[in-house]
Amino acid sequence: MSGDTHPPAVQHMAQHVLDQLQAHRSRCPPSLRPTPLFVGVQGPQGSGKTFLTSRLRAYLSSPSHALAVTVLSIDDLYLPHSELRNLAESHPHNILFQGRGQPGTHDVPLGTSVLENLKKINEVDAGTVDIPFFDKSLFNGQGDRVSHGETVEGPVDVVVLEGWCVGFFPTSKEFVEERWKEPVPTLEPDAFDMKTFVSVDHVLAVNERLKRYVEWWNALDAFIQIKGPSSAQLSIIYKWRLQQEHNMKSKNGGKGMTDDQVKTFVDRYIPGYVFFGDGVTKGSSGGGRTETTQLPSWIGKGLTVTIGDDRELLHASNF
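The structure corresponding to this sequence follows.
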């Protein structure tokens, strides 16, 4: 498939990966086989990140580039259903833990093991790596991990880790409390009321669990962030996610969430964007006037892809 048949956003993403792969390989000693380039891809619900990532893989795998690309979705690293249920029951008043999605609902040791094994997959006698798979249709949509994921064999050129909160960093209690007092940016006040939805303690509980995810982010060499237009980065998520649900229901006989259920679904993710989303470009924050305590490893190797209301490419820029 030639490059000009792919969406413009994918062409920018692919060129960024190709540039970063060349630089990555140049840093590897000539006597060693290079490790795969690890690329994080972050984008909000409904933005099309899964679609764009699949097209990116097709682009890079096409005969003109012939790269071996492995995609790992953070959604496939969720805890098994029984552990998700235990988490919800042990935090009955925290809506952020009532179901999958938030940091804290993933199996961090499993993700770390998969990433470490993929990092070594180009070594002699490295063997294969099993990619987990989470089936969201099980348990009436609550989902569960199943055993028939993809098996990857080296050599691998590029590993993509994609998900809504990839690159989100934990922050300080002071920062959460400061931001709590402010209006939610790029979201109409009547669309979502943070203070009736969650408490500071609920957000801090997620923040505590997010600290464990940093070991995943440390594995990344480069980054791609997909964003909505700056004036409506959060508001547009509701529109995009609703469009996705309507599209799915039109094809499966109407099975899916109601419009109200879609809104509630997106509501649970808004605190994550508000309190932790800056981490993609700023890393972890000490809060107040304290200097940033950790910058992401991909600063200087990041690409922002900004898309419009209809997911059309507006512009791409590096960070």
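The longest helix spans residues 8-26.
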